[in-house]
Design brief:
Blueprint (H helix, E strand, L loop, with lengths): L1 H28 L8 H19 L4 H8 L2 H27 L5 H12 L10 H46 L5 H11 L6 H20 L15 H17 L7 H20 L18 H13 L8 H12 L3 H10 L33
């Protein structure tokens, strides 16, 4: 009786491990929303520790960026291996419960089945059935990731189009000063409404893609000076300056862009358990100081951008817009180890591992 009870418990334990692994794979790849998957999180957190160690050994930002560019792709490649390894171990007690008495034989049979090589075989009916199920699971887990990667890379490419376009308008690293200076020089500082609408759509897209695929925020831009999160910060700060400080008629397009932006960043921050105030007061503190703001306004004035006369009210309005996205922006910039950019990654906190501050920042290119 004790042996029968032990075999039943072993079968249930193994089945629980296998089903939990299958659920983790489905949550990661199939479910179109961010759901906690313990095994996937364990793989990425463990791998991140290794990559953080490698980054600590570098002295140049380009080297650190090159290392971190491999983090998310390596994690995705490791996922099916981790899934299959756990399934392999989960079927060992199942085979023992079905009559494979030697643990080593059960392990060899499980390994043979999960990789579909068939070098080990047991002719008992229940064991054969379990072997077939395990082989199907092994193939299915690999097929899941293969079908999942093209969709992720398509989302990555869509994200990078506007990030690359921002380079021509706001420089690299992007800044609101460069954006408005160039706009003023070519005469469209008062014609940015389409620009805000394009970025409103971009924010809606990244909210959907970066919460459905939690590995996607860690995919880095093709050029080490660019990042999707610093681009987002530049656009949001530019829209906030446009509404609060620049003396032009109010733009509903800029308002909607900011709302789309902070909702997207908050949704992405939620995936990584980043704490933030979902209903901040306009008077809550932000990471931008009044001195930094005044310097930005002075530089805008110097390139003939029209500025509102009431600076105190303009500062209060700017802070009231910025407070909506300040915390998620800085936290995500630190989490993905974004390159240097004004008012975002240059002040992001030590969230998880924040190593950019100890590495030489790339020098901003001269803006024309």
């Amino acid at each position: 009786m004790l042996l029968v009870a032990a075999r039943v418990l072993a079968f249930l334990a193994g089945a629980t491990i296998v089903l939990t692994t299958l659920a983790s794979a489905i949550k990661t790849v199939v479910v179109p929303r961010a759901e906690p998957a313990i095994l996937s999180r364990w793989v990425f957190v463990s791998l991140r520790k290794l990559f953080d160690f490698l980054v600590r050994r570098t002295n140049e930002w380009q080297d650190a960026d090159r290392i971190m560019a491999r983090f998310s792709p390596f994690g995705l490649i490791m996922l099916p291996g981790a899934w299959m390894a756990v399934v392999l171990l989960g079927f060992v007690p199942i085979y023992w419960a079905l009559g494979v008495d030697v643990p080593r034989d059960a392990l060899v049979l499980s390994g043979s089945s999960v990789v579909t090589l068939g070098f080990s075989f047991d002719g008992h009916g229940p064991v054969v059935a379990a072997s077939i199920v395990e082989a199907m699971l092994g193939l299915g887990l690999v097929a899941l990731l293969i079908s999942f990667l093209p969709s992720m890379y398509q989302q990555f490419s869509r994200r990078e189009v506007l990030v690359s376009q921002l380079d021509t308008r706001a420089g690299t690293p992007p800044s609101p000063l460069a954006l408005f200076r160039r706009a003023e020089r070519i005469g469209w500082v008062d014609q940015l409404d389409d620009f805000w609408l394009d970025w409103e759509r971009w924010f809606a897209e990244i909210e959907e893609s970066h919460t459905s695929y939690p590995a996607l925020p860690f995919f880095r831009s093709p050029r080490h000076e660019r990042s999707w999160i610093t681009a987002a910060g530049c656009v949001l700060d530019s829209a906030s300056l446009r509404l609060s400080t620049i003396d032009l008629p109010r733009s509903w397009q800029a308002q909607i862009c900011i709302r789309a932006g902070y909702l997207a960043l908050r949704s992405i921050a939620d995936v990584y358990d980043v704490p933030f105030d979902s209903d901040p007061a306009p008077t809550d503190p932000i990471s931008i100081t009044r001195e930094e703001y005044d310097q930005m306004v002075a530089e805008l004035e110097a390139v003939d951008v029209p500025i509102k006369p009431d600076r105190d009210q303009a500062w209060r309005d700017f802070a009231g817009w910025r407070v909506n996205y300040d915390t998620p922006l800085l936290a995500i910039a630190g989490l993905v180890m974004a390159p240097y950019a004004l008012w975002s990654s240059d002040r992001s906190p030590n969230y998880r591992v924040r190593l950019v501050n100890r590495l030489p920042s790339p020098r901003p290119r001269a803006q024309s």
